[in-house]
Amino acid sequence: MATAIEQGRQTRARLMAAAVELIVERGWGAVTTRMVADRAGVRPGLVHYHFPSVTDLLIESALDVARTEFDAVMARLTEVDGPEGMRRVLATVGSYSATDPSMVALSEMMLAATRHQRLRDELGRFVAQARAGLTDWFRAQPGDADPEATAAAVLALLDGLILHRLIDPTLAAVDVTGPLLRAAGLTDDEGKSHVRQHDSAPDD
């Protein structure tokens, strides 16, 4: 028999799952306490027992999706070093589509962040953590003199790539592996190293 604590965790998880489904189906601003309760199969009062407001529920639920997606990307990246790691990231990014529920939820979250200060702050902390994780990976790669700057640039490029592919699915046919690897200071061919030309002056 589940304990009260376990039941509470299960109810909280059901509420968060229901919130994400409704964000995707109805849009962030249309989700209400009763809608979430009905979808989760619980009394409306339980929503406010676990979360101060429906907005807090939406924020926690969307951030959980963001963390889950990023953790999956980092898991693929950290399995290997060098160019292959970045290729795996691109393969994961390439699997996203405009109808992917997690991507729709994240898009709604980004828009909502312009209206909710708490969400904006929480999202800022998440991005900083994501950047730190990527920085650690680049720091372990040979030849990167500024892993923090590289991580910031690559993360921004990946975010932009995801957004553009969601808007224009035909971009999925464009192979951006080489440009991304060069931006990351890695190689785009076996045995070929893309060293920044200004790092060493030519011999006279």
Provide the fold topology.
Blueprint: H1 4-26, H2 33-40, H3 44-50, H4 54-78, H5 82-94, H6 101-112, H7 117-139, H8 147-167, H9 177-183
Helix pairs in contact: 1-2, 1-4, 1-6, 2-3, 4-5, 4-6, 4-7, 7-8
Q: How would you characterize this protein structure?
A:
With 204 residues, this protein is mainly alpha-helical. The chain has a domain at 53-184: Tetracycline Repressor, domain 2. 68% of the residues lie in helices and 0% in strands. α4 (54-78) packs across α6 and α7 (117-139) crosses α8. 22% of the residues are buried. Residues 9-69 form the HTH tetR-type domain. Keywords: DNA-binding, Transcription, Transcription regulation. This is Toluene efflux pump ttgABC operon repressor. Residues 32-51 bind DNA. InterPro entries: Homeodomain-like_sf, HTH-type_TetR-like_transc_reg, HTH_TetR, Tet_transcr_reg_TetR-rel_C_sf, TetR_C_31.
